[in-house]
Amino acid sequence: MYHLVVFASGNGSTLQAIIDSITKHELEAKIELVISDNPNAYALERAKTNHIETYLIKNKDFTKRDIELSNVLSRYTIDLIVLAGYLKMIGPNLIEKYTIINTHPSLLPKYGGKGMHGMHVHEAVIQAQEKYSGATIHFVNQEYDKGTIISQTKVEVTPYDTAESLSNKVQAAEKLQLIEVLNRFIHHEIKS
Ligand code: GAR
């Protein structure tokens, strides 16, 4: 069995896509734990509904958070950590010990970095009148959105798109891409 831990700060529709794929046996994996930094994250509700353990990390200090998370994670068997809409920086302890991937809603390196997340990304893409946007899955290192890219999916931006319609398109493509990438990890087609 392939063991996942998912980090999520918000709605958790990406977490839900992973849960659904596991339920449908499209992904032979188990989510051991869902971690959030946000007590109001709907992702936590989704995890509880699906009987997945959760952990809320309250520490605001970067170094202390890294140590706390490292201690919590050491109790689990983990093959891969997935950042699915997690907005906090990951610390060196975790980066050293685990393979961690992040999904980002743009064609990195465009529209990445601190403050560039979720709807902010789509608003910036619309504002710049880009012809294309998309989603990127990459390894996580100690710089926001700078780790090695694993996979990218392009979507077209039409003149009729709003940040919201673009977000819907990107998120749909992003979820398919993530499940495909996770399957490639499970089948050892991607080296961590
Ligand atoms: C996803 O589109 C993900 O790419 C993005 O947040 C959304 C989470 O949605 N992540 C970032 O912007 C990270 N920089 P969800 O909470 O519904 O899964």
Total beta strands: 7
Sheet of most strands: 7 strands, mixed
Give the termini separation. Answer: 17 Å
Enumerate how many helices there are, as a single number.
Answer: 6
CATH topology: Rossmann fold
Uncertain runs are none
- Content-based structural category: alpha/beta
The CATH top-level class label: Alpha Beta
**How many discrete domains?**
1
Radius of gyration: 16 Å
In terms of DSSP E residues, the strand content is: 15-25%
Oligomer: single chain
CATH homologous superfamily placement: Formyl transferase, N-terminal domain
How would you concisely characterize the structure shown here?
The protein is 37% helix and 22% strand. With 192 residues, it is an alpha/beta fold.
Blueprint (SSEs and pairs):
Elements: E1 2-7, H1 13-23, E2 29-36, H2 42-49, E3 53-56, H3 62-73, E4 80-83, H4 92-97, E5 100-104, H5 118-127, E6 132-139, E7 149-156, H6 163-186
Parallel strand pairs: 1-2, 1-4, 2-3, 4-5
Antiparallel strand pairs: 5-6, 6-7
Helix pairs in contact: 1-6, 5-6
Bound molecules: glycinamide ribonucleotide.
Glycinamide ribonucleotide binds next to helix 1, strand 5, helix 5 and helix 6.
Task: Give a structural overview.
- It is a single chain.
- The protein is α/β, with parallel strands linked by helices and 192 residues long.
- The chain is globular, with a radius of gyration of 16 Å.
- The chain has six helices and seven strands; from the N terminus they run βαβαβαβαβαββα.
- A seven-stranded mixed sheet has the order 3-2-1-4-5-6-7.
- Helix 1 crosses helix 6 and helix 5 crosses helix 6.
- The protein has one domain: Rossmann fold (3-Layer(aba) Sandwich), CATH 3.40.50.
- Glycinamide ribonucleotide binds next to helix 1, strand 5, helix 5 and helix 6.
